[in-house]
Design a protein that fits this description.
The chain is mainly β. 12% of the residues lie in helices and 55% in strands. The chain is elongated, with a radius of gyration of 25 Å.
């Protein structure tokens, strides 16, 4: 019995060492194709979606329970939002003919995001240079800044004019009822939550340092709009953050 117990303990120890159980730390930087699913136009005309890109960067800590599974958490700075373009009559200065004019809208949102992942990876053997991994888990976002701008060719002469935010604010009754002028951040909710997925590879430079190219996807579950801007519609639909992007990280495996 003692020999059997000793043999089992020895096998478990060897497996743990080979499996790379332990702590991993690192950082990553990349970019995302970002968009907002369902636009809130505050009663103005809805517009066509344009491509928009935003930077992403952060630090992460992971712990492997065994050779193939573990947990990972991160603190990330993420730029999200959406750009729009269309021809509409909302800001035409010609009240007689009321022609359609070129109109642009830009929404820029900055968040601190904290994802909590379950991590699964392929088994790393002694001479393995790269392993593949997948991450999935909830992501919690905290809005730190917001900017929103409208521009339109109001005179139909090819010159874009900035539309003051106070005009957009005038379409929201709760904002009109206050004496203070609202800031862009007042149009958006301070908390966001969704699900994030990541797929990538750990490419080892040596036994402890490795590089991580990774494809990421995020889709929000919560409405990003503030309560006053939601009360304008009887058939209101949530506006949700989303992105698809690519990051590259550098990590260090801390041996136990």
């Amino acid at each position: 019995m003692k020999k059997l117990t000793l043999s089992v303990l020895l096998l478990l120890t060897c497996f743990a060492l080979r499996a790379q159980v332990g702590l991993r730390v690192g950082g990553h930087l990349g970019f995302n194709n970002v968009f907002i699913h369902n636009q809130n136009s505050y009663g103005y005309s809805e517009m066509d979606y344009e491509n928009k890109f935003g930077l992403m960067g952060g630090v992460d800590v992971a712990y492997n329970f065994d050779g193939m599974s573990g947990v990972q958490t991160e603190i990330n700075y993420v730029k999200l939002g959406q750009d729009y373009f269309d021809r509409n009559r909302d800001f035409s200065a010609d009240s007689d003919n009321n022609p359609k004019v070129d109109t642009y809208r830009q929404i820029d949102l900055s968040y601190v995001q904290i994802p909590i992942f379950y991590r699964f990876q392929s088994e790393k053997r002694k001479k393995t240079v790269a392993v593949f991994h997948a991450l999935v888990g909830p992501t919690f976002g905290f809005l730190i800044s917001a900017d929103m701008a409208y521009q339109a060719d109001v005179e139909s002469n090819g010159e874009l004019v900035d539309i003051p935010l106070v005009i957009i604010e005038g379409a929201v009754p709760d904002f009109v009822a206050t004496d203070a002028e609202e800031e862009p951040k007042d149009f958006f909710r301070g908390f966001d939550m969704g699900m994030q997925f990541a797929f990538g590879a750990d490419i080892y430079a040596n036994k402890q340092v490795y590089f991580t190219p990774q494809l990421r996807m995020f889709y929000g579950f919560t409405d990003i709009n503030s309560q006053p801007t939601r009360d304008l519609y009887t058939d209101y639909a949530f506006s949700r953050n989303a992105f698809v992007g690519f990051t590259v990280g550098v990590h260090y495996y801390v041996k136990q």
